[in-house]
Amino acid sequence: MDTDALLEQAILHREQVVAVYAGEERAFCPHALGTKGQRRHVLAYQFAGGSRSGLPPGGDWRCFAVDDLERATSRPGPWYTAPNVFNPQACLDEIDLVVQPAPPRQAAPQATPD
Length: 114
Fold this sequence. Notes:
Blueprint: H1 3-13, E1 16-21, E2 24-36, E3 39-49, E4 60-65, E5 70-75, E6 94-98
Antiparallel strand pairs: 1-2, 1-5, 2-3, 2-6, 3-4
């Protein structure tokens, strides 16, 4: 199975994915698959593994170029997400597939009077 098909399957079945990206092993839950420019990308919640920029405790949103994911495999496990998934996201220009039901959007913070 190619990486794109593996990610589609993982999104449809809410499976975790483990892959090597930029030399670091990453464990993540893919939420949306689509394109940015002319390249396939996946918007994912990375909950474990390495990252050049560091990974906060509990995880964070990441955007991965699909062609740059190496040795990708899926596995069952807890589904990790956060309510700010699409507030805003610049990962994808066109979304082809999104996890269902989609995580709730977090309301934008309201300005407080001085």
